[in-house]
Design brief:
Radius of gyration of chain B: 22 Å
Number of strands of chain A: 0
CATH architecture of the largest domain in chain B: 3-Layer(aba) Sandwich
CATH architecture of chain A: Orthogonal Bundle
Distance between the termini of chain A: 44 Å
Largest sheet of chain B: 10 strands, mixed
CATH topology of the largest domain in chain B: D-Maltodextrin-Binding Protein, domain 2
Low-confidence stretches of chain A: none
Number of strands of chain B: 12
Mean pLDDT of chain A: 90
Distance between the termini of chain B: 74 Å
Largest interface: A-B, 41 and 45 residues
Number of helices of chain B: 11
Helix content of chain A: over 70%
Radius of gyration of chain A: 20 Å
Number of domains of chain B: 2
Strand content of chain A: under 5%
Mean pLDDT of chain B: 91
Order of helices and strands of chain A: HHHHHHHHHH
Structural class of chain B: alpha/beta
CATH topology of chain A: MetI-like fold
CATH class of the largest domain in chain B: Alpha Beta
Shape of chain B: globular
Order of helices and strands of chain B: HEHHEHEHEHEHEHEHEEHHEEE
Structural class of chain A: mainly alpha
Number of helices of chain A: 10
Oligomer: heterodimer
Helix content of chain B: 40-55%
Largest sheet of chain A: none
CATH superfamily of the largest domain in chain B: Periplasmic binding protein-like II
CATH class of chain A: Mainly Alpha
């Protein structure tokens, strides 16, 4: 219990002193996770919607695959992205291994199945209820997409928050593709892993407390923005 | 339609803010002055790089990005061309790296020693023995022992010591011997939590803050000598290597200024690493 008390003290002191290294780590965590979840959303939401409203051969198989990818192990994604981006790999000439860009890519890949599966599940219901009305009014499936997403915006927000939650908590994949380089690719989660391995458990716990507060704040703000977009 | 435009606009703005935050957090330095050094967990966990790199930046203008992996993983990273310089501590693995043509030249930089750590009350009774006798005792008594198990410099040294003690630890071990496949700090954490013996480099041990009941039980044996070497990754094998800045970094490390900076790193007044770039036998 002493460790926890010390951790709260350390957390308060880090925040109070506006510790510059902490600011840098927090900024990077937020930037990488927000970018990754927004990308996952931008790619996954249309895919999930299309999967719900278009009739196509093999649709059942695609739905199974989308849901199965929810179980994609993050560390395996990290390893695969690492091998792709390595200088010896196919995309090596891009030179983006061990940069925040690589971390965004890995987290976006992990977020896309979450968004696709959640949006698909929600859109199937929305389509069942409003689809016929939209089609009868003369809209093609493509043009029906935007009104559909407007109707289902609460579900879309949930999908985005789920992808963000996965991203901000990620550590295995981003340590592999980011390298946990001090000042460049060290995020809150990778810093916690590092401080734990150095035996500085109270600092690791303090960072953990700050991370939880951060994550909850972002989720709350996103929720409120979502309400704003919905005009409520 | 207006509402959807507004929503789209807000989403686009959010995406830009997110990308902007990531980009600004990157603080990208000039490419010519930035190198990636693949090194060990001991040089990081002991705090050496935290102390040394600001000095390097000030004296040479080079921005050093350190990947703290085990020696084995660091050398593999360099083999793939993902690092410019390697800074590790397993001479046999370094010589192999050179022989394969991935390194240009090996420079000795500094040394310290390994220490055999264990619970203060020493259930296996190894305190004060020479390291080979201590390992033999640990095996005979089946005392809990944590191995790095990750092809790091410390792991390679540990395997060499078992071999010198006449034990084929790969074939001949029981559940008392745990290969954890993680860095030095993680190994010390585990030993602390489970009252086990573990071989550590002195630097990481001195900086370690979760000692629990652990203490140094065996030290000073000549066989526990721990030499660090640095090599530039061969640009002939990987043209993307920043050879100019990499060589300048190495030159600084072995220069009198770099060597005295290394000697200046202390924890609680105790020196962690001893520079020996001038030693032809290192």
């Amino acid at each position: 219990m002493n460790d926890f008390a010390q951790a709260f003290d350390t957390a308060a002191s880090l925040i109070g002193h506006f510790d510059p290294e902490l600011r840098q780590i927090v900024g990077l965590s937020l930037g990488v996770s927000l970018t990754a979840s927004l990308c996952a959303f931008a790619i996954g939401a249309p895919l999930g919607t299309a999967l719900a409203i278009y009739r196509m051969r093999g649709r059942a198989a695609l739905i199974v695959i989308a849901n199965a990818l929810l179980g994609l192990p993050p560390v395996v994604v990290g390893l695969a992205v690492y091998l792709l981006l390595s200088r010896s790999g196919p995309l090596g000439s891009l030179g983006i291994l061990f940069t925040p860009t690589a971390m965004v890519i890995a987290q976006a890949i992990l977020g896309i199945p979450i968004v696709v599966a959640l949006v698909h599940r929600m859109m199937v219901d929305v389509w069942a209820r409003y689809g016929d009305a939209l089609l009868v009014d003369g809209a093609s499936r493509l043009r029906a997409t935007w009104p559909l997403m407007a109707i289902g915006r609460d579900g879309l927000l949930t999908a985005f928050l789920a992808a963000f939650g996965r991203a901000i908590a990620e550590v295995g994949a981003i340590i592999i593709v980011g390298g946990n380089v001090r000042g460049y690719t060290r995020t809150m989660t990778t810093a916690i892993a590092l401080e734990t391995s150095k035996g500085d458990l109270s600092l690791a716990l303090a960072l953990g407390i700050i991370l939880v507060i951060l994550s909850m704040t972002v989720s709350a703000v996103s929720f409120l923005i979502g309400r704003l977009l919905a005009g409520r | 339609m207006k509402r959807s435009l507004r929503s789209f606009g807000i989403l686009a703005a959010l995406l830009l803010v997110a990308i902007g935050t990531t980009a600004s957090a990157q603080q990208a330095p000039a490419q010519a002055q930035s190198i990636v050094v693949a090194s060990t967990t001991s040089t990081q966990d002991s705090g050496l790089f935290g102390y040394l790199l600001p000095i390097v930046r000030q004296k040479t203008g080079i921005e050093v990005k350190v990947l703290a992996q085990g020696t084995g993983q660091a050398l593999d990273t360099a083999r793939r061309g993902d690092a410019d310089v390697v800074f590790v501590h397993a001479r046999s693995a370094e010589q192999k790296f050179l022989a394969e043509g991935f390194g240009v030249k090996r420079y000795p930089v500094m040394y310290n020693d390994f220490v055999l750590i264990g619970p203060k009350d020493d259930p296996a009774g190894i305190k004060g023995k020479d390291v080979l006798a201590a390992l033999q005792t640990i095996k005979i008594k089946a005392a809990a022992f944590d191995s790095r198990g990750d092809h790091s410099g410390t792991h390679i040294a540990e395997l060499a010591l078992w071999k010198q003690a006449g034990i084929d630890i790969g074939q001949d071990h029981g559940p008392w011997y745990k290969e954890i496949g993680q860095g030095m700090g993680a190994a010390l954490n585990m030993a602390s939590a489970s009252n086990a013996y573990v071989l550590s480099d002195r630097g990481t041990w001195l900086a370690f803050q979760n000692r629990g009941d652990l203490a140094i039980l065996v030290e000073g044996d000549k066989r526990l000598f721990n030499q660090y070497g640095v090599m530039l990754v061969n640009p002939a094998k990987h043209p993307s290597v920043n050879a100019e800045a990499g060589q300048r970094f190495i030159d600084w490390l072995v220069s009198p200024e770099g060597q005295s900076a290394i000697a200046g790193y202390r924890i609680n007044g105790q020196q962690l690493f001893y520079p020996n770039a001038n030693d032809p036998n290192a």
